[in-house]
Specification:
Helix content: over 70%
Shape: globular
Largest sheet: none
Mean pLDDT: 75
Order of helices and strands: HHHHHHH
Structural class: mainly alpha
């Protein structure tokens, strides 16, 4: 992973940190809306892929919240391993649910109804997520933050998931390929397993949230130190 080795000025650093905070906040807010719409639309259309897509968005939000909570502790490193294990278990549970529901849909030949709402939310994600990822990656590289760059790549994964579900919905709507939805669900399950393994090994998916909170705390401590020195 390549990041900028030249440290930006203090003013520029503050600007970049604020920009990343806004990007992360926007990503989390969108994922909340995306999860609600996808799960609702998936339930109406009997689409296991849409439901799985919504659940994956929910886990992304919960993962970020878990890391944010971790960095509100006095000794965040103490909680890191446990937090990552919770995130990993959540991803493994998602993968198990999606795999079971997708395989069941294939065996029972479950008909998936057309979902205009599902098409809209997945298409919107395909269009929006790359811009959020690119903005965070550029800011992270200039700031020299490997965690921000890694988080931007995690956002990009959401684009791939959106594209997989969108393709499945389009194929089902145009050609009646009911099995395409289940295949898309299995693709999401594969991504969930991958993310769960990375979290279990210690590669936090949403560490940029914690990094930003830690930066804010360090800035506050530095300000207090400067004030006392004066």
């Amino acid at each position: 992973m390549t990041v900028n080795t030249l440290s930006p000025s203090a003013e520029r650093t503050h600007t970049l940190q604020r920009r990343i905070r806004w990007i992360v906040s926007a990503t989390i807010a969108y994922n909340v809306v995306e999860a609600v719409i996808a799960i609702t639309a998936g339930g109406i259309a009997s689409s296991s892929a849409l439901v799985a897509f919504g659940l994956d968005s929910t886990i992304e939000v919960l993962s970020a919240a878990a890391v944010a909570w971790q960095f509100t502790r006095r000794d965040p490193e103490r909680w890191e391993k446990g937090t990552l294990r919770v995130i990993a278990v959540a991803f493994f549970a998602l993968a198990a649910y999606v795999t079971a529901s997708s395989l069941l849909a294939l065996v029972l030949r479950t008909d998936v109804e057309h979902s205009t709402l599902g098409l809209v939310i997945t298409a919107l994600s395909v269009l929006l997520m790359p811009f959020l990822s690119l903005a965070e990656r550029r800011a992270g590289r200039e700031l020299g933050s490997a965690t921000a760059v890694a988080d931007s790549k995690q956002t990009l994964i959401c684009t791939y998931l959106s594209a997989a579900v969108l393709v499945g919905l389009v194929l089902n709507s145009l050609f009646g390929w009911w099995w395409a939805d289940a295949i898309a669900g299995l693709v999401i399950a594969g991504f969930a397993v991958r993310e769960g393994i990375e979290a279990w090994r210690g590669d936090a998916c949403a560490t940029s949230v914690g990094m930003l909170l830690e930066d804010e705390r360090d800035e506050h401590v530095q300000d207090e130190h400067d004030a006392s020195a004066r």
